[in-house]
Amino acid sequence: MKVVFALRADAFTKPGGDSKKVERYRTGLNLLGWESEVVTSARELLATPSDIVHLMNLDTPRENMHYASIAERSGRPFVISTIRHPFDGMLSMYEFGHDRFYRQLGRLGIEAETGIGFREQVKLLKQKNVPAALIRGTYRSLQRQLVKKASIVFPMATGEANAIRSDLDAGTKQKIIRNGFSFSPTAGSDSRPVTDFDLVSVGRIEPRKNSLMLAQAAAGTGLRTAFVGSLNTNHKAYADNFLQQIAEHENLEYLGSKDHNEIMGILQRCDVYINPAWFEVVSQADVEAACMGLRIVSTRHSYLEDALGTEVQRFDPIGLLGSGASDRLLELFDVATKVSGAANRDWGECSVELDAAYREVLRVA
């Protein structure tokens, strides 16, 4: 049997959590006897036969609606790994974040849901994917249609599943498939050397990750703060402002993009891990930092509970705005907490769960 994964058009040139997840899924599915391919365009999906189509990410609803229509026309059932971010966090970023595109739309009086959907349309038009860009409907109404049409959807966490059920109310069967993690859960604080950094943030340098706001807040604290992650070249002005902030303050250091092993080494030299993002689903970096024995503080706009329980200190990124941001960050540093029981998870378990779900869909179909 064969599954084809239909990813966003730039999945190979700008790999992210979705494309890495698919790589790991494919490795496990291959061991279970599945063939698989990855496509990044409607033309490729049309030309690639399969028994089932696996879509990724409800937050790109127009691109996925186009894929879904092709799957339906070819008589193939489709499933979705939803990777749906908390919508309240998306609204907060639209109103308060440093995203230039959203700020321009806000000044024109365009409300958040329209603006969020318009961003995807602009991206699709730049990629010359006109059929997908012209699909009509609001952002969440298209998400609702996708969920309703899917044979089954795969949230990553209970909180995400509940939000999909309450926000989209489509009644489609759900199967929660949590991510695996690839750092050793046994590397605790006792094995870590004296810290080089008080605070570390891991993730791309971009408006969604709120890197600049964290750098501005940390500059006034004296905390030795490290940033790990690639610069998002789609937001050059933002990245330039971030680098300028780093250059102007001795307590801030940008370590650049690192591979997994290098990140593990950096985390061993840090005290507190912070995730200031406007929104996440389940941050892989959050889970892995907890497994490395760091104290953790993370955005309230995510669904961490399945992986890390309720012990993690959560905060609203809006608190890093304004004149009191440095004081607020110092408070967060003080209350950051070690997590006693990060949930172990092997990526092979994900593929076993997918195999069972695919087979059930194909039996019904």
Tell me what the structure shows:
The protein is α/β, with parallel strands linked by helices and 365 residues long. The protein folds into 2 domains: 2-85 and 135-180 and 347-364, Rossmann fold (3-Layer(aba) Sandwich), CATH 3.40.50; 189-335, Rossmann fold, CATH 3.40.50.2000. It is built from 16 helices and 11 strands. It has helices spanning 17-31, 42-47, 61-73, 87-96, 100-107, 112-126, 130-133, 139-149, 158-168, 211-219, 236-248, 260-267, 284-291, 305-308, 325-335, 347-364; strands spanning 2-6, 35-39, 52-56, 78-81, 152-154, 197-202, 225-228, 252-256, 270-275, 295-299, 313-315. Strand 1 (2-6), helix 1 (17-31) and strand 2 form a beta-alpha-beta unit. The longest helix is centred in the C-terminal third of the chain and has 18 residues, at 347-364.
Using the alpha-carbon principal axes, give the shape.
Answer: globular
Multimeric status of the protein: single chain
Alpha carbon gap, first and last residue: 14 Å
Unreliable stretches, pLDDT < 50, 5 or more residues? none
User: Main β-sheet: number of strands, strand sense, barrel status?
Assistant: 6 strands, parallel
CATH superfamily of the largest domain: Glycogen Phosphorylase B
Number of domains: 2
Helix content: 40-55%
Question: What is the string of SSEs from the N terminus onward?
Answer: EHEHEHEHHHHHEHEHEHEHEHEHEHH
How is the CATH topology of the largest domain named?
Answer: Rossmann fold
Structural class: alpha/beta
Which CATH C-level class of the largest domain is it? Alpha Beta
Going across the major beta sheet, what is the strand order?
Answer: 8-7-6-9-10-11
CATH architecture of the largest domain: 3-Layer(aba) Sandwich
* Proportion of residues in extended strands: 5-15%
